[in-house]
Structures are given as structure tokens and as C-alpha cells.
Amino acid sequence: MMMTILAPIVVFGLIVLIHEGGHFLTAKLTGMKVEEFAVGFGPKLWARRRGETLYSLRLFPLGGFNKIMGMAPGESTDPRAFTERPVWQRLLVISAGSLMNILSAFLIFAGLFLAVGVQSFPNTPVIGSVMAGSPAATAGMQAGDRILAIDGNPVDHWVDMAELLGQRGSHVVSVSLERDGTEKTLSVIPEDQGNGRAMVGITPYMESRPVGIGEALLLGADRCVFVMQAVFAGLSAVVSGQSADVSGPIGVARMAGAVAEVGAVQFLLFIAILSLNLGIMNLFPIPLLDGGLLFLTLGEAILGKKLPERALYYIQTIGITILVGLFLFATYNDLSALGR
Fold first, then answer.
1. CA 41 to CA 46: how far, in whole Å?
2. Would you give the distance in Å from CA 113 to the centre of its chain?
3. Residue 172 DSSP class
4. φ, ψ for residue 199 (rounded to 5)?
């Protein structure tokens, strides 16, 4: 229970710290004045001033911000203000948050490859791990158990179980398995996930081989590309109406708690994937996101002047509408999932 509560806080706090840390470091390095660096939103839980910057930790860890002089509405003629710095410095500061998220994901992937090696899926029906509190854990399944049959149907490969369990959600299922040379029969009630899917809370056994630093770096980069492609494919499916699988903070918090129960490696992979998602999404040219500000700054550089206030107002209104719509849609999906 404690892990379920702490895991989302660690995930959101760490990813936000990485993202905002990118903005903060580049702002400092380019000579801008950072008035406040905050992790979270809402009332301050802790604050301390070091030099010209106030560092604060706030109640809700679902975001964070850097208060950089000149970024808030209103003119500033201070030479250290954001608006008074060269365009390349502003572009660097704007993009640094997302770049840090992407870099951190790459380092986590590469580090895990170096630490645990390359894992392969042998497709054998052997349990690698059991999620705490899952139907499998309740039934008494353990890591290392070999699944022999489900409701009398033989299981020769791991992938066979998806079909056998898919139509048995919320029903008692008899599972025959082998443990330490002894056959056992357990009863489990899979959780119905909808769309012909059911979950018992087990992961497959994976084989691994060690790799060196060079191969780990290449594999880390390859995994980043793979996740990026999956993100764009998922977004394309949502935009085209082929899928409505979008999760918000509630869904991410639920997943963080579940993954943390599985193990440290899976938890770090989850952080890397989420960090990569945040980095990519923030670069989209939507007003109020980093990508929107990046686009406007590039436009200012091309035009040689700032956009009119009225144009900025309409652009920001469109951005708010898009973000609020996405948030409400994702929250609806999260709440619907809670009811299943």
C-alpha cells in the first residue's frame, strides 16, 4: 500500500525535476535571472533562497516551473531578462527541458542494458515475477512456476495464455503448474480488462546476456527510437479515431504503483518511458507547451519583431482549449478504468 502511494510521487517528482532542471541549468548558463525554481504546484511545503533564486517544494507534485525574469506577461528591459537575451539562448532554454527528459531516458535505458544485459523472451510458460496484490499473488503463484494448463487446456508457450485467459475475466480459472518438480493446481480469478483481455498479474521469465558499454549505448539509443515511434503511432491512432487509449495523471499514478510492486528494473523502465513521452509531447507546437513557445520564438526571429498582443491572446486561448480538452478526455478514461 505504501509503495502504491509513494511510487507516483517519486515518478512525477523525478521527471519534473529533470525537465525543469534542464530549463534552470541552461537559463543560469546563459546569464538569465531565475527568480524561483519550484517542483510541484500549489502551497509551498518548503522554500529556501540561495543567492537570487528561491527554491521551493510545493504540495501537488504534478508539475513544476522556473520563474525566469522576462517570461511573464509585461515588458522587461533588464539585460538578464528572457526577452532581452539572444534568440539562440532563448531557444536553448525552451528546448532544454524536453532534451533533458530524452537524455535521461537514454541514460536509464543504456544503464539498465549495462547492468542486467540484453533480455530475450524465450516464450516459455514460466513466471518471471508476480505483482503484489494481484489475482496471481492471491492464488499463491510464485516466480519460477511453470504453467502447464489452464482449465485443462495445455499451455506450451507463454503467448497461449492470453487467448485462454481472455474470455475468462472475473471467472474462477483452474491453473495447473509445476513447482520444484511437483505439480499443483490453483484457482485464480483474472481481472477483466475489457476487449477480450484479462490479467492475473504475472510477467514472463526472461533470458539475458551481458553487454559492454558501447553496445549498451547503442541499445539505449535504439530503445529511445522505438519508444518515440510507438508514441507517434499511438497519437496517430488517437487523432484518426482508431484508438481512445489516452491516460492522464490518475492512470499514470495507478500504473506507477503497479509497476513499482514488480521490481526496480521495471520501475526504472517505466520512468524512462514516461520521461521520453513528456519530452516528446512538450515539443509539440501547442501554445502553453514548450513547443508552442519554441515556435513563437522562431517566428519572432524570422519576422524580426514580436507578435501583436491580440495574436498572442488568441494563440494562448487555443492552447488552453486544446490542453483542457486533452486533460478532460484523459481524466474521463482514467475514471472509466477505475470502474472496471
1. 12
2. 19
3. -
4. -125, 135
| CA–CA dist 255, 322 (Å, integer) | 25
Residue with cell 515588458: 75
| Domain range summary for the chain, segments of one domain joined by + | 2-114+272-338, 127-205
Which residues, 6+ apart, have CB-to-CB distance to 187 below 8 Å?
139, 172, 173, 174, 175
SS3 state of residue 39: strand
Sign of CA dihedral 82, 88, 93, 98: positive
The one-letter code for the residue type at 285 is P
Active site amino acids: 20
Q: Which residue in this structure is represented by grid cell 518515440?
A: 228
Q: Closest Cα to residue 307, out of 317, 295, 318? A: 295
Which cell numbers hold the place of 150?
Answer: 489452464
pLDDT in tens, 191-247: 887 777 888 999 999 888 999 999 999 999 999 999 999 888 887 877 676 665 666
Q: How many CB atoms lie within 10 A of CB 246?
A: 16
CATH fold of 127-205: Pdz3 Domain (2.30.42)
pTM summary value = 0.75
C-alpha cell at 82: 528572457
